[in-house]
TrEMBL record:
GO biological process, one term: transmembrane transport
Pfam annotation, one family: Phosphonate-bd
Family designation: Belongs to the phosphate/phosphite/phosphonate binding protein family.
Signal in keyword set: yes
Species: Gemella haemolysans ATCC 10379
One GO CC annotation: ATP-binding cassette (ABC) transporter complex
Signal peptide: 1-19
Domain Solute-binding protein family 3/N-terminal: start-end pairs: 32-267
Alphabetized PROSITE patterns for the sequence: PROKAR_LIPOPROTEIN (PS51257)
Protein name: Phosphate/phosphite/phosphonate ABC transporter, periplasmic binding protein
């Protein structure tokens, strides 16, 4: 009887070890691709909203894709450099930083609602502010989004500089950390002017319905080249090719196209025209921003 019990115990023990080993090996083999975004809204909410996109790409790439939102813009740039973020769908200035600092590779440019690869930055004010021109911004409180934001700092800041304002002397400003947060500051009358993207009142209409009636554009920037799909230099070529194909196909998938349009005003993806991004670097120079030193 003892021999039978000992044999049974040994069998159960060995089976348990094998089972644990199998689970551990399976866990180790599961590959996860991190998709990075800048903080357009509350991080947890953005990741939740991005799940259908993550699921779509997981199916197309054959590996699990998880969304990642950094607490600031440079967080995605650093993630691409370290390889903790495999690819980012990020603004052009952030992409240029990633290319400069870690040899990240831009593979696609997004197309906006017009079908062209670009969008504009805007300076918005409240309708009752009395601010009618860029010169009227002197002495006012301004909310930018992030030092690495194309539409939330680089381009609108350059508009103010080119209008003759010294950002350090003629205005007081802060970085809100998100386009939605800037909009909230403006509506709450905590600031007089915000720098953001065109259509911010539509993007956040659900959270801030009063924006539709209470704010107006003060100035519009030159065209900013489209949001860029930028991969880490550590991402293998085969996966890059699959990612590029999957995102190009978004335009032919009504459900995905509607989702990208609703969330990011992106209607599709096209080839990167690197020359178009020279304007971004030139605009950064107006703001005395050194791509090698932004951290």
């Amino acid at each position: 009887m003892k021999k039978i019990l000992l044999a049974l115990f040994s069998f159960i023990f060995v089976f348990s070890i094998v089972g644990c080993t199998t689970k551990t090996e399976t866990k180790k083999e599961e590959k996860v691709i991190k998709m990075g975004f800048v903080p357009l809204k509350n991080s947890e909410k953005l990741v939740e909203d991005l799940k259908p996109i993550s699921d779509y790409l997981s199916e197309r790439l054959g590996v699990k894709v998880e969304a990642f939102t950094a607490s600031n813009y440079i967080g995605v740039v650093e993630g691409l450099g370290s390889g903790s973020v495999d690819f980012g769908i990020i603004p052009p200035f952030s992409s240029l930083l990633a290319q400069k600092q870690s040899s990240a590779k831009p593979i696609l440019t997004s197309k906006g609602k017009t079908g062209k690869p670009g969008y504009t930055a805007e300076l918005y004010v409240r309708k009752d502010s009395g601010i009618k021109s860029l010169q009227d911004v002197k002495g006012k409180k301004v909310a930018f989004v992030d030092p690495s934001s194309s539409s939330g700092y680089i381009y609108p800041g350059a508009m103010l500089v080119e209008a003759g304002l010294n950002l350090d002397k003629d205005i007081s400003y802060q970085f809100s950390g998100g386009h939605d947060k800037s909009l909230q500051l403006l509506l709450n009358k905590d600031v007089d002017v915000i720098a953001t993207f065109d259509g911010v009142e539509d993007r956040y209409a659900k959270d801030f319905p009063q924006a539709k009636t209470d704010i107006q554009k003060l100035a519009t920037s030159d065209m900013i080249p489209g949001i860029m799909v930028t991969t880490s230099s550590k991402m293998d070529k085969e996966l890059q090719d699959k990612l590029e194909k999957a995102l190009r196909d978004v335009e032919n998938d009504p459900k995905m196209k509607e989702l990208f349009t609703k969330m990011f005003s992106i209607t599709g993806f096209t080839d990167v025209d690197q020359d178009a991004y020279k304007k971004v670097e030139a605009t950064a120079k107006v703001m005395n921003v050194d791509l090698d030193k932004v951290k």
